[in-house]
Structure formats: structure tokens, C-alpha cells
Amino acid sequence: MNQKIVIINGPNLNLLGHREPDIYGDQNFESYLSQLQALYPNVALSFFQSNIEGEIIDQLQAVGFDCDGIILNAAAYTHTSVGIGDAVRAISTPVVEVHLSNTLSREEFRHHSFIAPHAKGVIIGFGLLSYELALRSFISE
Ligand code: DQA
After folding, report:
1. N- or C-end of the chain: fewer Cβ atoms within 10 A?
2. Under 8 Å CB-to-CB from 9, ≥6 apart: which residues?
3. pTM tops 0.85
4. pLDDT tens digits for 54-87?
């Protein structure tokens, strides 16, 4: 059976590949997504990115009652957004929070997540592999 998994990326992640490559790597997300889709042909993967907090909330509400899993990297909003945390809590689809970098080894303000208490789980620090690990957590169910 095809599972429907949605990846949602937050602010500045559209710059992956260019932005601070020493922290976030040198691959852009679109090319990684093609690789991931090829590795998991039986998963219906879709992808949404926005730099705007309200658009991320709208997307969580739009997909969060009928897909099988959401992989969410809310980027900087992770550490600031009560609204995104509330949206994750409000929807019925399980959410796995991911980060490319190990946020706990970085500045203190990155240590807190408004999403983690409402997430099924959290995967941090494995670069783009964090997304595949999150995906595997859904398909191994
Ligand atoms: C990030 C970590 C956040 O602290 C940061 O604001 C990002 C990216 C990550 O994937 O490592 O933009 O979510």
C-alpha cells in the first residue's frame, strides 16, 4: 500500500546547498528529494517549503487529517512558534520533527522546540539523512 508522507520545510531551507554549507551541507533539497523518492518508490512523497509562519500552519492543517505522516523541519520557527506547535498538536497525522544540524550542540536558543512536545519523535543532527530516518520511522510501522 502506498503511504502518503508530506515533508514540510520552514524558513531559509530553500537555500540549502548555498546557505552555510559547513553546517547544512552542499546539496539542495530538490535533488535530495528526487534521490529519496527513487529509494522509496512505494511512498507517495510530497514537499512544501515556506518562509512564512502562517503558510506552514495552513499546510499542516491542509494535509494533517488525511496523510500518513508529516516530516517537519520548521527551521528557526521551531524555537519561536507557539502557533506551529499548536498546529502540530491540533492535527491527527503524526509529525516527526527533523533538523539537519544537531541543534543541541549549537546556541542555547536552538535548544528549545515548541514542536517536540507534540511530535511523535525528533531526529536531529544527521544532515539530509535525518529526513530518510524520519521516513523510515513511518514505513516501518
Ligand atoms: C535547522 C536548525 C534551526 O535552528 C535553524 O534555524 C535552521 C535549520 C536545521 O535543520 O538544522 O534554519 O532547523
Report:
1. N
2. 29, 47, 48, 49, 50, 73, 75
3. yes
4. 999 999 999 999 999 999 999 999 999 999 999 9
Give the CATH number, domain containing residue 12.
3.40.50.9100
The amino acid present at 98, given as its one-letter code, is V
Report whether residue 75 contacts ligand 1, using a CB cutoff of 6 Å: yes
| SS3 label, residue 71 | strand
Domain count, the chain: 1
Domain that holds residue 118: 3-139
Asked if residue 39 lies in contact with residue 5, where contact means CB atoms within 8 angstroms, the answer is no
Which of 14, 84, 99 to probe ligand 1 with, by most ligand atoms within 8 A of CB?
99
Question: What pLDDT digit, counting tens, does each position of 87-115 carry?
Answer: 999 999 999 999 999 999 999 999 999 99
